[in-house]
Amino acid sequence: MLLERNTSGLTPLAVFRDLKERGELKPDPAQSLVAEKLESLYHALKDYHPSLGESGWRARFGLSRRKEAEAPPMGLYIYGEVGRGKSMLMDLFFQTVTIAGKRRTHFHEFMRDIHQEIHKWRQMPGRETMDPLPRLARHLAEDVWLLCLDELQILDIADAMIVGRLFQALLDNGVVIVATSNRPPDDLYKDGLQRERFLPFIDLINQRFDVVELASGTDYRLNRLKGHPVFHAPLGHEAEAGLDYAYTLLSAGASEEALVIDVLGHELNVPRARDKVARFTFAELCDAPLGAVDYLALASRFVALVVSGVPLLSPDRRDAAKRFVTLIDALYDHRCILVCSASAPPEQLYPTGDGAFEFQRTVSRLIEMQSRDYLASSHLA
Length: 381
Prior knowledge:
five-stranded parallel β-sheet, Rossmann fold, alpha/beta, 11 strands, 2 domains, six-stranded mixed β-sheet, about 15% strand
């Protein structure tokens, strides 16, 4: 798989070219351009360590950590539509960079941690009105010199109001940032509340980052699914094997982990996830007390969900059926891919009884979600 190979001693471009020679990646000029920019940054980061601005006793006695301040390399902002290979290239770069102070995370998870730290800071007596961002940025820069953020996007005013000052403080402390996004900088937080206060962040990105579009005309997510069904019925060994195969294809070799997503103050557990693909059972999603906000969080966070064991539904399982309807609505609205195994085809899942008529809209959506046009559409995070 792409990111499971030993890359010790190799540069990003060397690994990228090796993957092409092995046929695991197809020739793509847009990807090659990004790989070359990542190669340049790789070399610029060799032996790099940020020269943090001094304060306290060091500054008073003229003692600095380095004799000369070292200008940090310019960060990289990679944008393009879903499925073009942005995350794959960033992960390849992150895996090959040898500096110790590096961190790779999803942007939403990074901002969740920042908000939690801000909350802790403001709970301390005497700090309610103080700005915690300079301290947070400096603390982070002591351990992290390369910060890779996947899927940078601004969805709410809470992030919009602090992200500019946060990034400015990180850059001032010498942190090099590589970010991927579905949107060009000028389209971030488009039509958002009080967007005029967000515009300095856009200026910061355009001035302090090398902005590059991954303008590939190929959606590799769709190519990976070509010829493979996304709805498997009936349940059984063959259906589960199909889910296993799709899970591997869509995740492109990313390692599996368990995640916890903060949803309006409560925790949503994701027992199995590989990068932008999550795997659940029907029971975990629809027998549990989850609601629309939980499903919307999943649909926003993940490009694809793999769900096993959808049973036949009836009035006896009305609550689970309602949750399933809500789940499908969330996935459909975000153009999230659903790969699932079920007891029957969509039109036979809720055959009779109270609620069967209302379920027909879900049947229609389940059928459309198997179409090429739907699978080729961009994920709406």
